[in-house]
């Protein structure tokens, strides 16, 4: 089994949107650049004009970098390094500020895509976040599977201003509501696919199912807009939520669609996406997502090259299954 993530809702750097014309045109999701401070760039995600999240990123050398994010209930900091996402690496990360390792602390920083993220509840102010905003530098220490210890140190130039601007960005409820790009149907096979709004209790052979629960309930493929994208997930006919793995957590979305059509579940060969795979979504930055299910289960989720497996929302977490199948025409 691949990496599992157990921290609560946090930043949204990854998203998805489905490439089918039947998605509702009324939904408007957008991620827009909102400002800069030093090396930091601030973004604001909105959905139908409502601010979902504000997050800032900073790029350093060789693809390393940091982020700061705030949402309604949580605030998060994160980083990525050359080895922060290596297989077999634990979630315990040592953090210290201004080169003062004598006052370091260990925190849980789970995987979220290529990032390691620490999240804190907004209802309980966290001193670690205050240090992040006011220190000159921060260091992250991570023990690698080889036993070596990787230290990643970042300058916090501009972080004080950026944390304030990130909070202010989120608190400004007057986000402009620019329309998201309308997904376009790309299906060329004889069997068509489309998305329809879900109604509790809805069933039928025209809905695409990933499998059945042990007690016989079908599990359907669903999808929803999250942070400027559209993500595939799963839903029971008796439920009113689409469970999607996103940002390290299970996102339980109440406004969503279900996939209609017929297809086949195919094991990926050599890690390559089959030519006839159904495009089930896209990231906020345009990268395509595909519909997957964990092999031998009824759990449906999303996959793209770069993921370590099929990412599924279950039990409050985003869970990655390394053995999985891809939905094809």
UniProtKB/TrEMBL annotation:
Keywords assigned: Signal
The keyword Signal is assigned to this record: yes
InterPro entries in alphabetical order: DM9_repeat (IPR006616)
Signal peptide: 1-27
Domain of life: Bacteria
PANTHER family cross-referenced by the UniProt entry: AGAP009604-PA, FARNESOIC ACID O-METHYL TRANSFERASE DOMAIN-CONTAINING PROTEIN
Name of the protein: Uncharacterized protein
Protein's organism: Aquibium oceanicum
Lineage: Bacteria, Pseudomonadati, Pseudomonadota, Alphaproteobacteria, Hyphomicrobiales
